[in-house]
Each structure stands twice: as structure tokens, then as C-alpha cells.
Amino acid sequence: MLIGVAVPVPGLGLLTYSVPDEVAPPPKGARVSVPLGTRTVVGVVAVLDAAAPADATKLRPISSIIDATPFLPSTVVDVAMWTGDYYAAGPGEALTMTLPPAARRGESDAFRMITVASNVAASNVQRSEVRGAKQKAALEILRERGTLDLRTLDGLGISRATMQSLERAGLVRLTEEIAERDPFIGAAGEDRWAVGQAPELDRALTAEQTDAFAKLAAWSEERRFRGVLLQGVTGSGKTELYLQLARRVISHGRRVLMLVPEIALTPAVAGTFRARFGERVAIQHSGLASGERHDQWHRIRRGQIDIVVGTRSAVFAPLESVGLIVVDEEHDGSYKQDESPRYNGRDVAAVRAQKEGALIVFGTATPSMETAVNAETGRYEKLRLTRRIFDRPMAAVRVVDMRTEYAEFGADVILSRTLIEALTDRLAKKEQSVVLLNRRGFSTVVFCRQCGTSADCPHCSVTLTYHRASKRVRCHYCNYAASLPKVCAACGGEFIEQSGFGTEQLEHVLRERFPEARVARVDRDTIRKKGAIAAVLKDVSAGKIDILIGTQMIAKGHDFPEVTLVGVVSADVGLGLADFRASERTFQLLTQVVGRAGRGDKPGEALIQTIHPDHYSIRAAAGQDYDTFYKQEREFRERMLYPPMVAMISLVIKNRSADAAMRDGADLARRIRARLPDGKVLGPAPAPIAKIKDEHRVHLFLKGKHRTAMRMAVLAALADRPEIRRRVTVDVDPVNVL
Ligand code: ADP
Ligand code: ZN
């Protein structure tokens, strides 16, 4: 028999191998070892009864069968194949991505953990000849806590080497055992569930929720594909609906996939599911240690899990008989993977729902243009929740025109009088505030007062940002860092100035203005350490923080009932970008962050500082008026031929030489145009960020109605120039176009 095997090599199609007649053929989804050139690799059986290759002499037999039963469910194989094809990555990369790392090497499913137990009685520890302080500490810990595993010890600063020398000295015993770790245990913010604890109860639904639930439940029972946009204002209780719908679907013997944009930022959602459904909930995201991920994957595969909560890669979770997929905050850009395969988890989820015959719910307060158009044209159903729970009012929004502020107080003003007053008022009333600025660092530009030259990254075409905590200027694209220049690199001038401000400076200014306030900041600089964000969010929930400052990270689905004020320091960050989604992103970010105010008993207020008070995305966000925004944005996309009115594929051609990149870009453009007579091919042109990490970047954009024809034209053009393939990024339905 001939089988089609996906092997872990980028860009390669399915390869055909023969299975010797005397062996039982492997099922679809099983792993096999196959020869590839001079190597042997682990591949996944994607097709049974494959067609014979054109050149029969090249046909080789498989080396061995790793799994006698399907390692991956059949639908996951199909969805991964679709992903590799649609996003022009090939089946190999897409299929291996769905396997946990150890499985990619062909290992069996048992994850081994090494545990350590003290071999000696406490009294002997004192007497025995223990040399290093580390060894002493290790024995102390073991004496106190009994048996521990090496990973936990590692977390306590005690290495495997230390334990091994103790073992050689006969002081401890190391044993290997198969174990499963539960990522909920010990993770701050996610510990709402404990063994033996009674599950949380479902809430009585409001009238609006009841209507939506009745429809969703009926659709879920049809057991066929259906897409639903659940558009509910912030705080309308979408999560409660997901929970109760999940319970219904499980009671009918099917399983649930719950996708969220970023678990580290919103651990509460995973915690809520866990609190309701206990240990039949698994969590899948990239922040898990590989061992934890592995354990969870196998628990899902063995059928011990009813609900998987996870980020985009969880769309490939090995669940069988999925009846419901929820894509929460479906508009969020982090569903798109920015490395190959460049898939959008939201869109792959829709394909999975089709193959499973499942209901898929896209939940959000601010639907993406893609999903909104699908709802408008009737491809998806649409349900709306227009009120907050208990009819709590939406936050009252005021727009503060910073131009008047600058005219009066100079261009350095960061906080308007209105915002200062509002913050003062909240501090006096002991209520919490959230202040958003979507830009990190202290100063965003460092420049010479004499000649005006700014300090740019030597490797990228961007300015360096000054970070005061580390006293260094840093590139946000390649992480290049240097000390703050004392003289200008261009003219030698000695007057170096800074301008522009980020969250670090905002924190500084707020602490100066409100020395008595308890201030916390959340951005990529402050949450590097694992668990740091969960700790801050916990402090906010516990009322230990008065003012929470942050980038877009603090705008995401957090539910802090005591926050009554949201300030947006500059709504304009991001509006000026050469990105056709700039307005959509601004509208979403502002609406989401405004939605953080007034979620509890006390009404909320939001202040938006801007120099573009008349821009439609700012106006619509201030009025929390999605429909008006949608109408205008749709018109813009239609007029300018932007997605979702057309399909788009972007190509980035990278080269250390700018000329060579342009030349290759022009050549590819010509080859694509020749194959796509009625498609639109724009470029080549230098990308808005023309250089990153010493590589010049040239853009090509394809727009048209026929995505498949466009993709084929691109792949054919690239096949003409295999020597540049490595330097060309193909992005189907791009999200980032800078
Ligand atoms: P959304 O996801 O739409 O922003 P949430 O699901 O976070 O809204 O709900 C907002 C708040 O209302 C949460 O604190 C949630 O626990 C609460 N809530 C939701 N539904 C109900 C209900 N039916 N009865 C009481 N409280 C509810
Ligand atoms: Zn750089």
C-alpha cells in the first residue's frame, strides 16, 4: 500500500512511501519513521492509498510504524492539512506543529519525572559530610517537604547536578516515575479550583442571556456546522453564556474547545472554567512548561478532558467529537501566528467546526471587520447582548482635546487637568483607576538639539527608546541596547534631548503627582518574569492598587469591579501607522479599555485624551457605537479595496542589500502578474519599517477575489526562484502589514 506522509520539512508537500505487504498498514494520524535523503525522520500519515509518484524508482518503503492506532484524530489531520495549504506553508510544518515536542521525536506518551527523596534521617543530615551550601539547603528542603521532583527543586534554585552528587554520597534517592502535572496548581491567579472543592454554580441568566442561550442551545443540538457572532457589550455576561452552553454540549456527549487570545493576560477565564468543571478542563498555551503541555495533550488524547481552554494553537487540540468551539475576543490580533505557518486561529477554528459539524461562537464587544461582514451577509448568525449585567450603565465617556491643553501648558503635558482631577477624586473616594498608554519605555525619541539627528537602531530603521530603569536606549524590534549617548553621533553636539513618552515615564509622572497612591505598571518590561502579571492582577483584584498603568495588556477582558475610572493618555498611538487596520485597532482598543470601568456597583467614567477628537474611530469609541464605526470602516475598505472586501496576500522580500531586495521584488511581481491577469499586484516598495535586523524589507501586496488563484500564482513564481525562497515571507490574510 502507498501512503502520503507529512514530514517536518518546511515547504515540502506530502511524500509518498510504500508499506510492505506483510505489515498491517498504519492508520491515518499515526506516526511513522521514514527515510528522507540520508536521514530518518518522524512523519504523520495524512493520506491512505496515495497515488503512485510519477517516478516509481524514487519510491521508498517506510522504516517503521511508531503508532498502531491514530496518534492524531482524523479531523485534526484534516484541519492541519487545510492550514498548511491555505497559508502556503505545506503540510509538514502544519502537521508537526500539532504534535507535542516529544512526540515529534517519536517518543512514547509517558513523560518521565524524576523525584527525589531524602535517604537519611534528619539527625544524620547534621552529622554527615555535606560540603556545599547548596547541598545542605537541598537536604533541608527535602526534610521539610518530603519527596519532591527535580523540576520543583530547580525552581527553588537547586540543580540536578547538586542532587546527583547527593545521590552519589548516598544521601538521597532519585527515582523515575511517570507523572502528570496540573498547570493550574501553583499558578497564581489560576488557583480557583482545588481537589475536593465544591464546583461553582451556574448563575441565573438575565432575560437577554436567556434568549441568547435558548438559540445557542438549540443550534448546538443540530449537530451541524453553524457560525454565530455573539456581539455583547463589555460586561454583558458572555462568559456565563459560554459556561452554560459548554455544560449543555457536554451533557449531550460532545466536547468543547474554548479559545482565548492570551492566557497569561487573562488567567481568569481559564480559572472560571476550572471552578465550574473541575479536572475535566485542560489548558493549552505556549507559556506552559513543555512537560506540562505534554501531559495535558495526552490527557486530552485519552479522552479524560471535556473542555480545552487555550490560545490559538489549541485549535489543533486532539479532542474527539467536538460539539462547540468558542473564539473569545475573536477580534484579537494575537490569534494570528507571525511565523510559518502564519495561520489565524480564529479562521482555522471555523474550518475545524465545519469538519466536526460543530457550533462555533465568535464572542466580542467589537467584532473584527471579517466576522462582522460574515454576519451581515448571513454566513453567520448574529446575537446581541446590548446591556450589562444588572443593567449597570456603560461608562460615561469624555474626549479631552489635547490641542487646547498644549496651547495653554506647552507640548510636554502628559496628563490633562481633567484627568488629574478625575484621578484625585478617585483616590479621595478610594476607588481604583486604570490608565492606558499603548507605548512602553521612558522617552520614545533621543535626539541632538544641534542638528536634529535622532538616535536610531544601527540594525533597524526605527528610533531607539530610552528606558530609564536600565539607563539604556533600546530597539523594540531587535532588542539592540546601548547606553544613553552623551554626544550626537552625527555632529558631535553635546546637547542630547529626549522627547515622546511611554508607560515608564507615565508611571514616573503619576507617582510624582500622587505620591500617596499605590501604582502598578503592566507592560512587556515589567512582566518578563513568569507569574508577574498574575501577581499584579491579583493585587488589583484585592484592592491593593489604586492606579493601574499599562499598555494594551490591561485593556483585555479583565473584570475588576472596583475600577470606576479609565484614562487613555494618548488615543493617537497607532492611528498614524501605515496600516489599513489602524482605525479598527484604535476603535477596538479604546472600546475595550473603556469597558473596564464601572463593572461593579458604582458607575464608571472614561477620559480619552487625543489630538484627533474628530476622527471617526475615536468618536465611535467614545460613543461606544459599534454600528456607526462599522458602517464607515466598511465604506473605507470597499473604496480602497482592502480586506475583508478583497482577499490579500502579502510578500516580504528580505535582503542585506536594499537593491537586491527591490530587484527580487520586481522579478517576483512580474512573474506573479504574468500568472494573474486580473489580480492586483502592488509593489515592490520598501516596507514601512524598511530595515529590521540588518535586512532590508520590500513589500508586495496581492489583492483580489480569488484567494486560491492568488496563492497558486505566488507559489509558482517562487518555484521559478528557489534560491530566494528562504528570504521571502508569504502571508495569506496578513494582520501585520508594517
Ligand atoms: P463579558 O465577558 O461580556 O465582558 P462577563 O462574562 O465578564 O462579561 O460578565 C461580567 C460580570 O457579570 C462578571 O463578573 C460575571 O460574573 C457577572 N455575570 C455574568 N452573568 C451573570 C448573571 N446571569 N448573573 C449575575 N452575574 C453575572
Ligand atoms: Zn533594531
How many helices? The count is 22
| Subunit arrangement of the protein | single chain
Q: Uncertain spans, ≥5 residues at pLDDT below 50?
A: 109-113, 184-195
**Name of the CATH class of the largest domain:** Alpha Beta
Radius of gyration: 28 Å
CATH architecture identity of the largest domain: 3-Layer(aba) Sandwich
Q: Tell me the overall shape.
A: globular
Give the spatial strand order of the biggest sheet.
12-13-11-14-15-10-16
Describe the overall structure.
The chain has 22 helices and 31 strands. It has 738 residues and is α/β, with parallel strands linked by helices. It has 5 domains: 2-104, GIY-YIG endonuclease, CATH 3.40.1440.60; 112-178, Winged helix-like DNA-binding domain superfamily/Winged helix DNA-binding domain (Arc Repressor Mutant, subunit A, Orthogonal Bundle); 207-389, P-loop containing nucleotide triphosphate hydrolases (Rossmann fold); 392-442 and 501-636, P-loop containing nucleotide triphosphate hydrolases (Rossmann fold); 647-732, Alpha-Beta Plaits (2-Layer Sandwich). α12 links the parallel β14 (322-328) and β15. α18 runs parallel beside α19 and α21 (658-675) crosses α22. The radius of gyration is 28 Å and the shape is globular. It binds adenosine-5'-diphosphate and zinc ion. Residues 457, 459-460, 475, 477-478, 480 line the site of zinc ion (ZN). Adenosine-5'-diphosphate (ADP) binds next to α9.
